[in-house]
Structure formats: structure tokens, C-alpha cells
Amino acid sequence: MDTGPRSMARKTPQVPTLVVAVAFPHGALGSSRRALWLYLFVATASHGCLDALTDGGLGVAFFSPFSNARYFFPVRPIRVSPIGLRAFVSEDGLAVLASEIRWVWVPSAVVMAITFASHRRPTLRRPPRPRRSSGRSIPP
Fold first, then answer.
1. Which terminus of the chain has a lower count of CB atoms within 10 Å, N or C?
2. pLDDT digits (tens, 9 = 90+) for 87-110
3. Hey, which of 105-109, 117-121, 132-136 has the most confident mean pLDDT?
4. Segment holding 84, helix H or strand E
5. How far, in Å, CA of 126 to CA of 136, rounded?
6. 29 or 64: whose pLDDT is higher?
7. How many Cβ atoms are within 10 Å of 102's Cβ, its own excluded?
8. Total number of domains in the chain
9. In angstroms, rounded to a whole number, what is the distance separating the alpha carbons of residues 128 and 125?
10. CA dihedral over 15, 21, 24, 28, signed as positive or negative
11. Is it the case that residue 83 has pLDDT exceeding 70?
């Protein structure tokens, strides 16, 4: 059975189940159930894809429990994070943080900025009031 760190939350078949369980109390967040479900689905599914872009570990079991095969993407630019607080605040840990900023946080911020900019609603101005006519028609 799959027990690696890149397992349960990153398995493609379990993503919809996890999202439904988390998205159930959507009313408290003031969003539609569909929008919240889509957001959580993309966030959870992309986590496995990001793990497959790292340069370490055992790989991602995308199709578990149907297959225990583990996968990496052909290009793996993200450095794998060291385990433990001391290792994370070391020079190697800071290099990992720089790698995550470059390959995860900056692209995410760009996508988020584009999304917010494209969904920005222009302020609605009232159209000018039509002038009252004097009852005379103007010839064309």
C-alpha cells in the first residue's frame, strides 16, 4: 500500500471526495458551492503536480489505490525541501525557498493578478438624463 509522503492528498481519485468534504460549509464563506468546489479541486490536484516537479523523493502515486506506480514530470525545476527545522533554515533550506518562490509563488501571483484584473468590474455611471423636448419636432 502507498505510504509515502506524497500520497493521500495528492491522489487524483481522492481529490473530489476531499473537496466535497471541505466545501460542504460553503454558505459561511459567501460563495457558491460550484465556485468553492472548483477552487479546492484545482488547489488540491495541483499539489500533486507540484510534487511531481520536485527533484527528490519517491515520486507521486497519481493513480493510487489503483496503481502503486510513482511518477515525476520530465522537467523537475523545484528543489525538494529538507526535513526538519534546522535543515530548513540552513543554506540549503534557503536555496529551496528561493526555488519555490521562483517556480511556485511568482507564477501563482501572476495568475492571481491576471485573474483579479480580468474580473474587475468597471464602475457603472448613470447615463445622462435625456433633455426634455419642447414638443416641436426638428426636421432632419
1. C
2. 777 888 888 889 989 998 999 899
3. 105-109
4. none
5. 27
6. 64
7. 13
8. 2
9. 9
10. negative
11. yes
Do both 46 and 94 map to the same domain? no
C-alpha to C-alpha distance for 63 and 68, rounded to whole angstroms = 7
Side chain identity at residue 53, one-letter code: L
Instruction: Please check whether residues 65 and 102 belong to one and the same domain.
Output: no
Looking at residue 2, its pLDDT comes to: 46
Sign of CA dihedral 28, 30, 34, 37: negative
Residue type at 74? P
User: Are residues 69 and 85 both part of a single domain?
Assistant: no
What is the average pLDDT across 58-81? 88
CA gap 53, 72 in Å, rounded: 6
| Helix and strand element counts for the chain (H, E) | 5, 0
Q: Are residues 115 and 57 located together in one domain of the fold?
A: no
Judge whether 82 and 55 are in contact, CB under 8 Å: no
Helix 15-23 / helix 33-52 crossing angle, nearest 10 deg: 140
pLDDT computed for residue 20 by the predictor: 64
Please tell me the pTM assigned to this model. Answer: 0.58
